[in-house]
Every structure is written in C-alpha cells, then in structure tokens.
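To whoever is on call:

I kicked off a structure prediction for a single chain this morning and the downstream step that reads the tokens threw a length-mismatch warning. I double-checked the sequence; it's 308 residues and nothing unusual in it as far as I can see. Pasting both halves so you can look.
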Amino acid sequence: MIPIDYLITIILFASIYAIFSLGLNLEWGYTGLLNFGHVAFLAIGAYATVLLSLKGVPLVLSVVSGIILAGLFGFLLGIPTLRLRADYLAIVTIGFSEILRLFLLNEEWLTRGPFGLHGFPRPLSLYIPYKDYNLFLLILVLATLFLIYIILSVMVNSPWGRVLKSIREDEDVASALGKNVFSYKIQSLVIGSAISGLAGAFLAFYIQYINPRLFVPMETFYAWIIVVLGGSANNKGTILGAIILQIFFSGTRFMESSVPLSSHQMGALRIMVIGLLLIILMMYKPEGLLGQEVSRQLMAAALMWKNA
C-alpha cells in the first residue's frame, strides 16, 4: 500500500513537470523550435519569485513577476536567435541556460550561490497546517495545470495555432502566404518561457529550497522525454508523459534495496533504462503514445489551413 503522502508527492512532481513540459510542447511540438535551454526559464521563474518574496513583495506579485520575467528573457533570447534554424538555435539556447546557471552559482551577493535560498514564504502557509500543505499545493497545481491545458487547447486550435503548425511544417510556405514567421516564433517562445517560469515558482514552493544545481541541462531533457513519450503537438500526451516518467522514477526507488548498486549508480541506471525505452518507442511508435490523435489533428489542421 503506497502511503498517501508519497502518492501526493508523485502527483505533485508530475503536475509541475507537466506544466514545465507544456511550454516546451508549444515551442517544439506546435512551432518546431528546437529549444535545448528550456530549464533556464524554470530557473528564472523560481529565483525571481523567491528573491522578490524575500524582499517583502506580495507573493502573488512575486509569482506574476517571475512569469513576466521568464517571458521577457524568452523575448530577448528570441530576437537574435529565432532567425537561426534547427541545430544553431539548439546550441544558442543550451548555451544561454548554462550561462544563467553559472551566473546563479557565482553571484553569491544575489543568489547565495551554491548555498541556495530557503525560508521564503509560500501561498497561504500561515493558514494551512504544515501536514496538510502538500495536499493544498497539489490542488493548486492541478487547478493551474487544468487552466493552462484549456488555454493552450483553445490557442493551438485557433487560427493562431494553425499558423504555428504551418511554420513547423514549412516556414517558407507560411512566409510566402504573408505570415510574419518571426513574430509568431517570438510569441510561441515567450508564452512557452512564461509557462516554464510558472512551473519554476511551483517547484520552489514545493521543495522550499532552490540552488543552481536544481537547474542543470538534464532538466530540459526530462521535458523533452516527456514530450516525446506522450507525443509532440499533443497536450494530453505531454501530461501523460509526465505521469509515466514520474511513476518510473518513483517506482525504481523501491528497487534500490534489492539491487546491489549505489544511489549514484541507480540514478545512472534509470537514465540508461529511459534511453532504452525511448529507442524502443521510436522504433515501434515514433509519433509517441498518443501520436495517432496528433496525426488526425494535423490532417484536420492542414485542411483548415488550405481552406483559410
């Protein structure tokens, strides 16, 4: 029997990473932007929220400021990079995420460097008993996840979303039809970055401690695993992928007592198994677990775009 507190933890982490990955799915799945530095915006949202709240800024304003700041950095990064294609964009974004991580690690006057930040306020923590707080936070995160899912579903099924899909398939065709491809890419990157910033705020609220080691490049690739696993350009698939990945990580922890491996070796084994599973998935179902639905949606979008 799984303890209820542990079950809450699994769902809470899965929900936070689902929000984080929905931002990447908008950028890659719907727009085709190869962003390998998505974790940077998770860090911006987390640090901005925490630093402002520690300075006495009301918590709601701190979270909103973190979201806006993440979106702003997405905009500033997008101006010089979104005219690049594929692998060039990937190199620039992963470089940005590492520059930001090293800044957070070395500027101790602002971030306390490797010592991290703690002791910051959390939503309604004065009114909710500590033993019940994770349940409250889970409800809050799930409600936010549902809201983001609904908003993104409306957006990607609108004319705006159909333009994003056309850019993903062939941006030259979209440009020839009179669409401002650069503007649409910027919008996608800003919205995806802002969503990631919100996930960063929730992550900080849950673990109650942040330091630069939490925002290594591997976190970006967890988001990529989630998107690929569930099926790109499918928000339901992204949520399913986050649930499956978190269940896998949590389930393998029970094996540590029966497998003669250290914790570091077990962590490496998990990554190897995930890689193997992704290879198998790409061999037999390259469109992801919910890819068939995506194919139907893409066909419908193409017809609608043709008739528009």
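Update from on-call: the warning came from a stale cache, not from the record. Cleared it. Sanity check on the structure: Strands lie at 117-118, 209-210.
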